[in-house]
Each structure stands twice: as C-alpha cells, then as structure tokens.
Amino acid sequence: MTLGREKVCFLNTPTPLEQLKTVSRELGIRFYMKRDDLTNYGTGGNKLRKLEYFVKDAQDHGATMLLTVGGAQTNHGRLTAAIAARYGFRSAIVAVDPYPGEISANLLLDGIMGCQVYLVRKDGRTPDSQLLQDAVARVTKEWEEKGEKVYFIPMGGSDELGALGYYDCALELDAQIREQGITNPHIIVTVGSMGTYMGLAAAIANEHLNMKLTGIGIMPYRDITGHALDYYERLRKTYGLEAVLRREDFHINTDFDYGAYNNPVEDVRKAIYYMGRREGIILDPCYTGKTFNAVKKLAERSELSKEDSYIMIHTGGIPGIYTKHHRSEMEVELMNYMHII
Ligand SMILES: Cc1ncc(COP(=O)(O)O)c(C=O)c1O
C-alpha cells in the first residue's frame, strides 16, 4: 500500500543495483546501474512497476480487458500485454502509426502474448490526438459489445496511479543505497511520458530521501518543467502530499534529445556499443541509449561531479533494437564483426 492505494505484487524486487566498474573508471565518475530491465515479465522494463497498480485497479473495477495507447512499438503496450496474459485479461493496443512493414520487436512480442494491435491510419486532416481518442472509443465499444469490460490505461501509464510504481522504487533504492553504503546518490532517469521521473521526484520530496534526481529528456517537449509541475500538482492534490515544489525543483536535461522521439542517432548507437562492449549490458535506442549517451558526454566534458554516485535506472526497452529503422543502421555498422569462414 502506497499513499492509500493497493497494488498486486508480482515483481521480482528489489532489482539489482550494481556499480559498473569499467565505465566508472573510464568516465572518471562513480557509476551505478539499477537493473529494472531485469524485471520478470514480457522481457522486462519500467512499466511493470506501474502495472502493479493498474492491475489491482482493473480487478477492483471488474474489468476483463486492458486497453492502452502509444506508438506501434510501445514498450508500455508490450508489458501491458504481458501482465494481461498473466492475470487473465484480454489486451489491446491502439496506436496512430503506419504499419512498419514487418511484425518485429515489440509487435512480435505483442502477438506472441495474444494482444490485439490496432494501427490507426492518418487522414491528413484530423490531429493524431483526436484520431487516437476516436479509435479508442471505437475499439472499446466493439469489445464491450462482445461482452468484455474494458479498462483503459493512459499513454506510458503516466497518470496519478502509475506514478506510484516509481514512488515505491525510490524507497527500494533508498534501502539499497544504505545497505551498500553509497554516498551522495544522484539518480539519473529517462523522461518520456514522465511517470517514472515523477514517481521518483514525489517520493524524494515527500519521504525526505537523501538523493538528487536528474531526468534526461529523450524527445522535445514544449515546456518540460511546466509539464512536470502540472503533473506534480495533480499528484499533490490526489494524495494530499505535503511537499510544495516549484518549477526550479525539477532538474531535467533536454540537451540530448536529438530533436525527435525514437529517431536513429549515431551518438546513441555509439553509446549502446560502448556499454555492450564494457559491461555486457544492452541499452535501447529510444530511451536508455539516449540517456546513457547524455551521461557519457557530460562525464567526458567534466560536467559531472566527482563527489556524487550516479545511479542510472535501466528502464528496459531492449526490443527496440530489433525495429527495422534502428536495426538496419546497426547492421551496416556491425558488418565488420561478421566473418564467414
Ligand atoms: C524503456 C523505457 N524507458 C523509459 C521510458 C520512459 O518512462 P516514462 O514514460 O515513465 O517517462 C519508457 C516509456 O515508454 C520506456 O519504454
């Protein structure tokens, strides 16, 4: 129970927290990774912590089907499909995206887990948000006419309920930090739809946890700290939180978003290869690769403190490396590792 809300506990927590020795030595910082990519369903990732709360709420509402939205390659959708399968719900994903020409990566996993995927065609006039809303209404109606009770989970699971997953994670981290004697912890996390960052930020402020938090933006936002403040205010009102935060309290670096969501970026691929070749840890091209690229570049520019212990949360997303537009770039770059003898 967190802030008065219950969850279904299905996660293999605490997830490992380990120092990455080679990366630490080479970058000249103390660098740790919290392995939320190693969570236990649907190949893992951050959304599972949020889904512990959504599943409980769906069960309490007597739902029989989980429906969520995102891009065609949504990690959140894939993990919703996994937990739906585990708890006996049907599942569906609605995305305003073209068919990518192949069923690979998350789409492949969605199908394996029995999730219905609806890709909405653009008509050149209607805004995406309207298309999405209309399609969700249509798909919900269709399934409810077949006798299902549909429970809707918002984009990325980033609402007041979903944020509790990373509120819990901050408390878990705090216990691990004490146990391992880590000094001046500084958490680094990707900011997408922001539920992960916000859960951590809310817990740090309201549970008086001794840790700094920096978010790394991976896509352009019109006003990212304004969005953070609005989101936090919603949490504060919903749960009666004590801490009052201002815009300046949200530290989110937007210098490494490379201008778009989920775009192939050479620097990011280099960061992925760097991590893979030193630690055997796979990062993804959309979220964690961009985030680690930011850490690496900041360290190389001596913009990170020697005093802090940086803890990057690995939020998963690994199926993303198998999508066509990322995979094809990597196939070219990695060809010289292929030997036919
Ligand atoms: C792998 C991965 N990392 C990070 C994020 C960002 O989390 P949030 O949307 O809560 O900001 C996502 C969101 O989809 C994700 O799939």
Automatic annotation (TrEMBL):
The modification N6-(pyridoxal phosphate)lysine is found at residue 47. Keywords: Pyridoxal phosphate. GO terms for molecular function: D-cysteine desulfhydrase activity. GO terms for biological process: alpha-amino acid metabolic process. The keyword tRNA-binding does not apply. Residues 12-316 form the Tryptophan synthase beta chain-like PALP domain. Its cofactor is pyridoxal 5'-phosphate. It comes from the Bacteria. Belongs to the ACC deaminase/D-cysteine desulfhydrase family. This is 1-aminocyclopropane-1-carboxylate deaminase. The lineage of its organism: Bacteria, Bacillati, Bacillota, Clostridia, Peptostreptococcales.
